[in-house]
Amino acid sequence: MAKKKKTTTKETEEKKLHADPITQEQRDKAVDKLKQLKEGNVVTIPADAIVNVPISGSFRKAIEGVLYYLMEPLNASQIIASMSKVKTNFEGLEPEQVNDTDRAIWCIMSLLSELHWQAAQQGKAVETDQKIDETISTMIAGIDGATEEFAKKAQEVKSKITKDKPGELRLKKDKS
Questions:
Q1: CA 159 to CA 163: how far, in whole Å?
Q2: Where is pLDDT greater, at 86 or 12?
Q3: Which distant-in-sequence residues (6+ apart) come within 8 Å of 40 by Cβ?
Q4: What per-residue confidence (pLDDT) applies to 149?
Q5: Angle, alpha carbons 162-79-129 (nearest 5°)
Q6: Closest CA to 108 of 75, 40, 61
Q7: HSE-up (13 A, CA, CB side) for residue 145
Q8: Is the Cα torsion angle 57, 126, 134, 160 positive or negative in sign?
Q9: For the ranges 21-25, 82-86, 146-150, which has the lowest average pLDDT?
Q10: Contact criterion met (CB below 8 Å) for 67 and 79
Q11: Fewest CB atoms within 10 Å of the CB: 28, 38, 87, 140?
Q12: CA distances from 60 to 3, 39, 57, 67, 136 (A)
């Protein structure tokens, strides 16, 4: 009888870091587990837990769109001020100096930053010769002048957006 190969701690840790999309069967099992909770109990994720989530490049673009949406009502100086707060992780600021928009921008920027770094670490960030606007990636990487460049780009996006219906944003079609 062949000996069973022991998995190393490193292999076990790597498995924990890998996240595959959840199947419907796995979702159903999770729902069944939730139904078995004692009345009044809830399931939560501890603040220090790290959860790995598979995210596609197109979903990353959608998250980037949310960032632009959050900044749509802001002018360039407000964007720069908010980005400066985010860049310093709100250090030295009193709670009343940080508004909900700043926190929302920080949240989305943190998510985009982690996606950016994870994609690079996993070899999924690729170099192309196409001209793709990666202003957010440039800013995440900390390149000098990126915040101002981003503010300018956000203003460009803002000028292309028209509100068709309440709660719905659409880009104006180029007349070229």
A1: 11
A2: 86
A3: none
A4: 67
A5: 75
A6: 61
A7: 1
A8: negative
A9: 146-150
A10: no
A11: 38
A12: 44, 37, 5, 11, 11
Q: Where are the domains of the chain?
A: 57-124+133-163
User: Per-residue b/e over 34-58, b at no fewer than 16 CB within 10 Å?
Assistant: eeeeeeeeeeeeeeeeeeeeebeee
Residue 120 has which token pair? 């690079």
pLDDT(24) > 50: yes
Residue 162's beta-bridge partner residues? 170
Beta bridge partner(s), residue 161: 171
Residue pair 60/115 in contact by the 8 Å Cβ criterion: yes
> What is the per-residue pLDDT for 25?
92
Contacts of 153 (CB under 8 A, 6+ apart): 133, 135
Q: 55 and 115 in contact (C-beta within 8 Å)? A: yes
Over residues 113-167, the pLDDT tens digits come to: 888 888 888 888 777 665 555 555 555 555 555 666 666 666 666 666 544 444 4
The alpha-carbon radius of gyration of the chain (Å, integer) is 21
How far apart, in whole angstroms, are the C-alpha atoms of residue 60 and residue 108?
10
Q: Does the global pTM surpass 0.85?
A: no
Query: Letter for the amino acid at 103?
Result: R
Would you state the structure tokens that stand for residue 1, as one six-digit string?
């009888």
Amino acid at 94: E
